[in-house]
């Protein structure tokens, strides 16, 4: 009888505990979905109408070869290229005048939920002539703001930290970012990626060659040398305002 009474006294406790757990899980799920919905930024494809994608360039407009990269700020392979290979490309190819580099940031997959926000942050930094500095911050600190590492994460606090570290005008950045002032530019980049039949990121176009994936320096250099041997590059499009050597 003692055992039966003990078992009966525990049943209400377990029922109550189950109710608490179910309600708690529901509340957590609701909160995560609410945060996720609040932080994910999207673009309207129609925003690209009448806008010509120009990207952002680095290096001399007179360089004989242009490397074009289609990149997604949340793409791990893009982060690998930007932090491992690109420093060599800048030092050994761009600074020496052999190539100019042009990047088109866009969202390659909707699974990269914070990519558009990051691209917008970079465009807003470009308004203050700091695109490449923000580019480096975003790729170097990808794990700090990417939703790939933490779904539902709001990247804005990290972007604001980068704004401070780069010495940008916070009020001007806020007006640009909160006003979504460059979503049409990102939409145009997306249209250009589709036109070029870009299927993954990073994708590089060097002359008549298309390379997919995070390429090592030697692979980039080999294609550059091959293109140079064929003759000068076609005239470049008008560079973005932040074009400069770095």
From TrEMBL:
Q: Which domain of life is it from?
A: Bacteria
Taken from the record, one Pfam family name reads Thioredoxin_4
Instruction: Kindly indicate whether the keyword Transmembrane helix belongs to this entry.
Output: yes
Query: Which keywords does UniProt give here?
Result: Membrane, Transmembrane, Transmembrane helix
TM region positions? 12-32
Q: What are the residue boundaries of the Thioredoxin domain, all occurrences included?
A: 38-229
UniProt xrefs under PROSITE patterns: THIOREDOXIN_2
Q: Sorted alphabetically, which InterPro entries does this protein's record hold?
A: Thioredoxin-like_fold (IPR012336), Thioredoxin-like_sf (IPR036249), Thioredoxin_domain (IPR013766)
The record's comment on protein family reads:
Belongs to the thioredoxin family. DsbA subfamily.
Name of the protein:
Putative oxidoreductase
Its source organism is: Gemmatirosa kalamazoonensis
């Amino acid at each position: 009888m003692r055992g039966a009474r003990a078992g009966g006294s525990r049943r209400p406790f377990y029922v109550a505990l189950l109710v608490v757990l179910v309600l708690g899980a529901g509340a957590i799920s609701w909160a995560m979905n609410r945060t996720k919905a609040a932080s994910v930024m999207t673009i309207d494809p129609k925003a690209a109408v009448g806008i010509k994608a120009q990207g952002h360039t680095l290096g001399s407009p007179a360089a004989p070869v242009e490397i074009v990269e289609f990149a997604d700020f949340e793409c791990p392979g893009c982060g690998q290229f930007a932090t491992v290979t690109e420093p060599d490309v800048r030092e050994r190819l761009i600074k020496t005048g052999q190539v100019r580099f042009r990047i088109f940031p866009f969202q390659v997959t909707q699974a990269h939920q914070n990519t558009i926000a990051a691209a917008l942050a970079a465009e807003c930094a470009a308004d203050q002539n700091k695109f490449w500095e923000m580019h480096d911050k975003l790729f170097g600190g990808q794990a700090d703001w990417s939703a790939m590492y933490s779904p539902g994460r709001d990247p804005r606090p990290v972007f604001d930290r980068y704004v401070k570290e780069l010495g940008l005008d916070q009020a001007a950045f806020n007006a640009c970012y909160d006003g979504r002032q460059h979503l049409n530019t990102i939409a145009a980049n997306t249209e250009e990626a589709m036109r070029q039949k870009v299927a993954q990121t990073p994708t590089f176009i060097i002359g008549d060659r298309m390379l997919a994936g995070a390429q090592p320096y030697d692979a980039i250099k080999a294609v550059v040398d091959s293109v140079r041997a064929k003759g000068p590059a076609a005239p470049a499009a008008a560079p973005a305002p932040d074009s400069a050597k770095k």
